[in-house]
Amino acid sequence: MGAAPLMLCSAALAASIAARQDAGMFAEPPEELTEAQVVEIGAELRALRDELSAAFTDGAEHAKPVDLDSPIGRVSRIDAIQMQQMAKESQYRLRDRLIAVKAAIERLEDDDYGFCIVCDDPIGYARLKVAPESVACIRCKTLRERDG
Ligand SMILES: [Zn+2]
Question: Is residue 132 situated within a structural domain?
């Protein structure tokens, strides 16, 4: 009689472990990319590189230092400096991603693409599809973020 709640409890525990396995925490490493997937993600990486480098070139204009001698009002000058600051930060982010994307293209050309730099397991299609410049699998990335 008294055993029923316990069974319920372990069923709930099993369900929660299964859910975590689904989330990839304890799952087997993902499959290696197929040839077709490498070609597909390679094309996306190159498109992304072109897009990022175009955005970087566009943004360079806005990120230029504000000319403090230019004849604009004080408030507009503060605005201009803030805008320039934001543009500069967005340039940094663009540049970092562009570097990561170019490095991914190099790995692709060296036939060394899609493996985690930490554990050497395949990173997996699902993750690379979202972030093709990824260098670590989701498990290692999660661990690293948790360890700070
Ligand atoms: Zn890993």
Answer: yes
Ion ligand 1: residues, CB < 5 A: 116, 118-119, 137, 140
**43 CA to centre of ligand 1 in angstroms:** 24
Residue 7 lies in a domain: no
**pLDDT, tens digit (0-9, with 9 covering 90-100), for 81-117:** 999 999 999 999 999 999 999 999 999 999 999 999 9
Specify the pTM: 0.72
Residue 72 counted as domain residue: yes
Rounded alpha-carbon distances, angstroms, from residue 19 to 8, 13, 23: 16, 10, 6
Q: Which class for 116: exposed (0-12), middle (13-18), buried (19 or more C-beta within 10 A)? A: buried
For residue 72, what is the domain's CATH number?
Answer: 1.20.120.910
CA 101–ligand 1 middle distance (angstroms): 19
Q: How far is ligand 1, taken at its centre, from the CA of residue 24, in Å?
A: 12
**If you measure from the C-alpha of residue 76 to the centroid of ligand 1, how many angstroms do you get, rounded to a whole number?**
49
